[in-house]
Design a protein that fits this description.
Layout: H1 19-50, H2 59-68, H3 75-93, H4 98-123, H5 132-160, H6 166-196, H7 204-225, H8 242-251, H9 254-273, H10 286-341, E1 345-350, E2 355-358, H11 363-371, H12 375-381, E3 386-393, E4 396-406, E5 412-421, H13 422-468, H14 476-501, E6 509-512, H15 513-528, E7 532-538, E8 544-547, H16 549-566, E9 571-582, H17 584-590, E10 595-603, H18 634-644, E11 648-653, E12 659-666, H19 681-689
Parallel strand pairs: 7-9
Antiparallel strand pairs: 1-2, 1-5, 3-4, 4-5, 6-8, 9-10, 10-12, 11-12
Helix pairs in contact: 1-2, 1-3, 2-4, 2-6, 3-4, 4-5, 5-6, 6-9, 6-10, 7-9, 8-9, 8-10, 9-10, 13-14, 14-18, 15-16, 16-18
Length: about 700
């Protein structure tokens, strides 16, 4: 329970009672004082009507509730305000001297302030009455500790003005105050707790149930307390309300049961004072009638409040257990999902070494750890964290990390093992380093090629001018022609460098790959010679791709020439065009987008590529040919052209079994690009290709 309420803003410990504190607390104190005055005045006025001290006294309960929720530093101010309101009511309704009134006011202060302070010292906090112990300790403090002293002072005061004897007035004071303190204070505190906490919205059915409960309770109270009888035998009709209160305790909760018991107690006492109900015939004196009525109200109220609080506590415990179980189920589901999707192998054992969980990839890990005995697990269960290297597969090396698992009390409850594939990790690192190295070389090659190309243009221009100035029959013209041929070869080399670096000016367009390769077959036969047979197999009638035709020619020619060089004794070069689809796994491996592709397979029957050279074939300046026979830029150029077109190239080869190069280019379905200028063709193609989900976008 917090120390804040509408009556007062929270006050920091040690806050002075200065102008700021009074400004904050003043309006709330006035409201509290007015409410307290009404709670005092109404019973006092009724007591003179019935000629005796009134049996229903809610004022002390209201005062205790107000003080519970008043900041401790400002309680003296609130106590003073309550005392003033008490004196005003006494002046209005009770005859007596000032000393007698001060005695009665002191009795009220003892009951209110004393109960509040003593309860907080016993509980070490303001009570929330959500646990049976709170109600029991509060009742003990009030009934034995402070209310009896207040009743003694009040009995002395009332006897001084001729209202009765000290024992009779003191006992009635004690009975009336303790009954209503134990009924009203928990009800008011529970109501306040509902206001300051986040509560679920009450449903329409719950509202209807409460209305029906109070309607049934009102009818049962009419049956129990509205009749008058002169017979000595009185049936125990008061018990008819108990089943309703018990049902409320189990079904409707603490709050409704609290207000139900207050309604029963108030009806019982009011009916008895008006000469009705089962307690009227027990005595001819109002004092004893009220005592019986107060005793009934006390027993009925406290017993059913305790039942409701106990049921509420058990329900809260059950809800907490349900929340814990749900959290455990959620955590277990998350753990299973994590294990199911874990890339690394993960296994967990309990404190006895029994396997309790494992990822789908952990079978080899578990088998290896079991094969090694319990030594590794036992080290982890003894509190040691370590990493060791294992071969879980013949050609795969793993780093296995074992850790102890501890609970909140730092007790070891198990151990976990996770295995990282070092072989794959090294391959990924090497691939990343290769990619970064190729990118760096590409940037360097592009810059050099541009500058070198400009220099060669100057050389070629001057050689042309020089040749024109030499007579036709002069032998120097042959030297100039040789120099020009060398310069042209240098220009071709720069084009290859620019293609690899993807900085060459290109003019891509839509073309049918199968048709284009067919048209190149005759040219390839003349280029490769009579010893090389060229076969073209086009399995895709419709194979549109987006690429620069001259660059495509360069790709096919480079691969074909390499195949010829790999078959010095002749052979067959096979070119195949087909349709295919690249899924997510292939796309991640190839470094291209998923979707439909057109494949171009170039296969030879040559001597093949050695396994140690295969990872490096697309690197610039890498060549397996003898010195002077190759620049090492052919396959690097092919790789750059294919990737610039949004595709990928891969190779499969082994010694003496030939090599197979597979080029995958995104399949596009766009109209002929002649509807747009060459410089806008790519953008238009991209927007039109996006209309078909099975076609790749181009840019």
């Amino acid at each position: 329970m917090t120390s804040s309420m509408p009556l007062s803003a929270p006050t920091r410990r040690g806050e002075s009672l200065g102008a700021l504190a009074f400004a904050r607390f003043g309006p709330s104190a006035i409201v509290a004082a007015i409410l307290y005055f009404l709670a005092v005045a109404a019973p006092l006025a009724a007591s003179f009507r019935f000629g005796s001290n009134f049996g229903v006294w809610p004022a002390t309960a209201v005062g205790i509730f107000t003080l519970f929720l008043t900041p401790r530093a400002l309680r003296p101010v609130m106590v003073a305000a309550l005392a003033v309101m008490n004196w005003c009511a006494l002046e209005l309704f009770v005859a007596g001297s000032l000393p007698v009134q001060l005695l009665l006011i002191s009795a009220r202060i003892v009951g209110e302030w004393g109960t509040t302070e003593l309860t907080e010292r016993v509980l070490r906090r303001p009570p929330d009455f959500e646990q049976p112990g709170d109600l029991a300790r509060f009742g003990l403090v009030a009934s034995v500790g402070t209310i009896p002293l207040a009743a003694l002072l009040g009995g002395i005061g009332y006897s001084a003005i001729g209202r009765g004897t000290v024992p009779m007035e003191g006992f009635q004071w004690w009975v009336s105050e303790i009954t209503w303190v134990l009924l009203l204070v928990p009800a008011l505190m529970h109501l306040r707790r509902q206001q300051v906490s986040t509560m679920e919205s009450t449903t329409r059915q719950q509202v209807l149930e409460r209305l029906l409960f109070f309607e049934a309770l009102a009818l049962s109270l009419l049956v129990a307390f509205s009749y008058t009888s002169n017979s000595a035998f009185q049936p125990p009709l008061g018990v008819v309300v108990s089943p309703l209160l018990i049902w409320s305790a189990f079904r409707l909760g603490v709050g409704t049961t609290l207000w139900g018991t207050i309604a029963v107690a108030g009806a019982c006492v009011l009916a008895t004072l008006n000469g009705r109900g089962p307690f009227v015939v027990l005595s001819d004196e109002t004092f004893y009638q009220i005592a019986w009525a107060q005793g009934y109200a006390f027993i009925v109220g406290i017993s059913h409040i305790l039942l409701a609080v106990a049921v509420g506590q058990r329900r809260a415990d059950a809800e907490e257990r349900a929340r814990i179980l749900e959290a455990m189920r959620t955590s277990s589901a998350r753990l299973e999902a994590h294990f199911a999707g874990a890339r690394d192998a993960v296994a967990v054992v309990d404190a006895t070494g029994m396997l309790v969980a494992a990822s789908p990839t952990a079978s080899q890990l578990v088998a290896q750890l079991q094969h090694a005995g319990t030594h590794s697990w036992q080290r982890a269960l003894n509190g040691e964290s370590f990493t060791e290297t294992m071969r879980l597969e013949p050609d795969q090396e793993y780093a296995v990390t074992l850790l102890p698992l501890r609970d909140a009390s730092d007790v070891i409850i198990g151990a976990s093992a996770s295995a990282v594939n070092l072989t794959d990790l090294r391959s990924e690192i090497a691939a990343e380093e290769r990619s970064q190295r190729l990118a760096t070389v590409g940037r360097l090659a592009g810059g050099i090629a541009h500058d070198f190309n400009n220099i060669m243009m100057v050389i070629l221009g001057n050689l042309t001018l020089l040749k024109e100035s030499i007579p036709p029959n002069d032998r120097k013209r042959a030297d100039v022609d040789e120099a020009s041929a060398a310069a042209q070869r240098a220009v071709g080399l720069t084009r290859q460098l620019l293609a690899y670096a993807r900085r060459q000016t290109i003019e891509p367009q839509q073309l049918d790959l199968g048709t284009h390769v067919r048209q190149m077959a005759t040219m390839l036969e003349r280029l490769l010679g009579a010893d090389i047979a060229v076969t073209v197999d086009v399995k895709a009638n419709d194979s549109p791709v987006w690429i620069d035709p001259s660059q495509l020619d360069q790709v096919v020619v480079n691969l074909s020439v390499n195949a010829r060089d790999a078959m010095p004794d002749g052979g067959t070069l096979r070119l195949q065009v087909a349709k295919d689809t690249v899924d997510d796994a292939q796309a991640a491996e190839l470094g291209m987008a998923t979707g439909d592709v057109i494949t171009l397979v170039v296969q030879d029957e040559g001597h093949g590529i050695a396994p140690e050279a295969l990872p490096h074939v697309f690197e610039p300046f890498f060549s397996t040919k003898p010195i002077g026979k190759g620049t090492g830029l052919g396959l690097a150029t092919v790789d750059g052209i294919v990737r610039q077109a949004g595709g990928a190239i891969s190779v499969v080869s082994s010694l003496e079994r030939g090599a197979t190069f597979t080029i995958r280019l995104p399949r596009v379905c766009i109209p002929s690009p002649d509807i747009a200028p060459p410089d806008a063709a790519s953008a238009d193609a991209a927007s039109q290709a996006s209309d078909s989900p099975s076609c790749a976008s181009v840019a």
